[in-house]
Amino acid sequence: MKKLLFTLLLTVAVALLVNPAYGVTVTWSPGYYDFGSSVFDGNNNTSPIMYPYGIGYLPSPGHSNEGGEKYDLEGLNFAYDNDYLYVSVTASFGASINTYAEGDLFFGFGANKYDYAVDVSNSKLYAVGDSSNWNFIPSVPGGYGSLDPIITNEVGAFDINAGSSLLGNIAETSTLYAGLESGYLTPGDGDTYIKEYKISRSLLGTDLTSQSSITFHTTMECGNDLLEKTYGVVPEPGSMILLGMGLLGLGASLRRRK
Q1: What digits encode the pLDDT tens for the residues 185-212?
Q2: Total number of domains constituting the chain
Q3: Is 85 domain-assigned?
Q4: Is position 26 within any domain?
Q5: pLDDT higher for 70 or 127?
Q6: Smallest Cα–Cα separation from 117: which of 168, 174, 173?
Q7: Are 156 and 144 spatial neighbours (Cβ–Cβ below 8 Å)?
Q8: How distant is the alpha carbon of residue 54 from its chain centre?
């Protein structure tokens, strides 16, 4: 009994650490996807980039003049149904910051993360193609840009360029939540906003469930933070039924041989 109680308490504690309560009710956009309370994730207040001079060195996240780790990309959610992909991106550097602008949202299948891109400025989906069709982080105030090619390559694609092929429009919305993240160091617009994307699967040139995984990639214009997450893809119910029938047939065949 004690062991069961301890396990239950530990599970609750871990859940609170992963999805802490912030006292703000997040309302997901109708017609998109309800991701529940999972607004932040393991990217919250961290940076996965190996900066050549260490985390905290200007202008990487954590430096006192740059806003600290609470002034960065905070989380990403993904889901899908028969018709759409649903993605949310959480950031705490404000929706109207120019110097620290958000990057486009890239995604790809298997080992590739740059098959497609959502231009966050006009809500359009593009087929990216190859590296000639995206831009690395530029030289902006407070950023690395071309000043440090190590960071440029580490961070990866920032935005798509005119060479990408337009596939169509998507649904995109943004909601600002004051007080969802606090304690950032840079004064001004540092509230958390959540962008939601609804992408029609009919625009993709590949069947989602024929792939093993999907990876999303986005970064800040300054290169100070990178958000990248990979999700497994589950086959359609019909495919699962066929797989199950195949396994049953294999089992029956093996049993007859015995």
Answers
A1: 665 556 788 999 999 999 998 888 899 9
A2: 1
A3: yes
A4: no
A5: 127
A6: 168
A7: no
A8: 24
CA distance 70 to 62: 8
Tell me the one-letter amino acid at 106: F
Token pair 């301890």 is found at 6
60: left (phi over 0), alpha (psi -120 to 50) or beta: beta
Query: Does a structural domain hold residue 173?
Result: yes
DSSP 31-49: TS---TT----TTTT----
8 belongs to a structural domain = no
Structure tokens at 230: 């990979």
Model pTM score: 0.80
Residues 6+ apart with CB under 8 A from 242: none
* Structural domain span for residue 54: 31-257
- Give per-residue pLDDT as tens, 106-127: 999 998 999 999 999 899 999 9
Range list of H helices, 85-148: none
- Identify the bridge partners of residue 78 per DSSP, sorted by sequence position: 87
